[in-house]
Specification:
Order of helices and strands: HHHHEHEHEHEEHEHEHEHEHEHEE
CATH topology of the largest domain: Rossmann fold
Structural class: alpha/beta
CATH superfamily of the largest domain: Response regulator
Strand content: 15-25%
Number of helices: 13
Number of strands: 12
Length: 343
């Protein structure tokens, strides 16, 4: 290999690791096994490798920019996703443009048009219409029109759109979560947050019903509580729970922000977590370790998610054929917010 053609992939191949591992060493964004880290660092020195070398291998691109549309950058899931994508973009010689809709789905069309007019090399969409059960025919028509000119990668669903999709393994995540709770002796389980017109939430709810039924556990409909996906939504959902006349032994929060609101409401009632009620959630961003007690949750592996998104974009730009739908695994991170009620 010559020093003018070295890429992240070349370093990964020679070191016998994944491109994601090389990226982590370059950015210092996560711990890497010391042996792997040394092999990567030795190769970086050997080839005098710099991230911009990867960009040189993509020199036929002109704008070197990627647009990303998110519903609310204040949500730690979206901010973490953007930061991870930006790190990976920089490694590949790209800069990022952030479009924050502030939860106004109607503004997404304008952002899509603006990014397309700016001739960005690709557009990433996370949440919003991407997760709606019915995003609307006009929106799908616009997406398909833009996708013919500009590669569009959706971190989510968006059925009916001719885009590249990267989807979390919701079934595995929810089943793993439920197996953990049931293993701790929990049968009275509530779920707070989200709405059934959002595909990931709808999937989680269906999996919850079906899995508990298979285990011979009856799920009480009143324990399924709608709310938005915020701290305030979690707090309001917990207040609704208090009016039902009985409490579950465990609560599934739709995300970390909701979990924080739920735990605050429980604390105000003198209900201890996890001694009185266990709380478990989703996302696994920095919020999970800031919550007290630290939150047990399903991780979407957002660093790997960002690597897969950027690898997908690079492959599209280089006209390398890839799957239209790819999946990102989930896994359970056990911390302090759940307890075994049978001990």
């Amino acid at each position: 290999m010559s020093d003018t053609t070295i890429t992240v992939y070349d370093i990964a191949k020679e070191a016998g690791v994944s491109p994601a591992t090389v990226s982590r060493v370059l950015t210092g964004s996560a711990k890497v096994n010391e042996d792997k880290k040394k092999r990567i660092q030795d190769l970086i020195v050997k080839y005098d490798f710099e991230p911009n070398g990867f960009a040189r291998s993509l020199s036929k691109q002109e704008s070197k920019t990627i647009g990303m549309i998110v519903p609310d950058i204040r949500n730690p899931y979206y901010s973490t996703m953007f930061v991870n994508c930006e790190k990976e973009a920089l490694l590949r010689g790209y800069s990022m443009i952030l479009c924050n809709t502030i939860n106004e789905i109607s503004s997404e069309s304008g952002h899509l048009r603006n990014l397309s007019e700016k001739c960005v090399d690709a557009i990433i969409q996370v949440g919003g219409n991407a997760d709606e059960v019915n995003p609307g025919s006009d929106y799908i028509e616009l997406v398909n029109k833009i996708a013919k000119k500009t590669p569009l990668v959706v971190a989510g669903e968006m059925g009916g759109a001719d885009v590249y999709r990267i989807v979390s393994e919701h079934t595995h995540g929810m089943q793993t979560l439920l197996e953990y709770l049931i293993g701790l002796g929990h049968k009275e389980i509530a779920m707070i947050g989200g709405r059934s017109n959002i595909v990931p939430t709808l999937k989680k709810r269906k999996i919850l019903y079906n899995f508990l039924k298979e285990q011979g556990i009856y799920f009480k409909e009143k324990f399924m509580i709608d709310s938005d996906y915020s701290f305030e939504g979690g707090y309001a959902g917990a207040q609704t729970l208090f009016t039902l006349g009985e409490l579950p032994t465990a609560i599934i929060a739709i995300n970390e922000s909701s979990a924080m609101g739920i735990i605050k409401a429980l604390n105000e009632k003198g209900i201890r977590v996890p001694e009185d009620i266990s709380v478990i959630g989703y996302d696994n961003t920095f919020y999970s370790e800031m919550i007290s007690p630290q939150l047990t949750c399903i991780s979407y592996n957002l660093e790997d998610y960002a690597v897969l998104i950027m690898d997908t974009i690079v492959n599209i730009v280089n006209k390398i054929e890839i799957e239209r739908i790819q999946y990102i695994p989930t896994n359970l991170i056990i911390r302090d917010s759940c307890r075994n009620i049978e001990l």
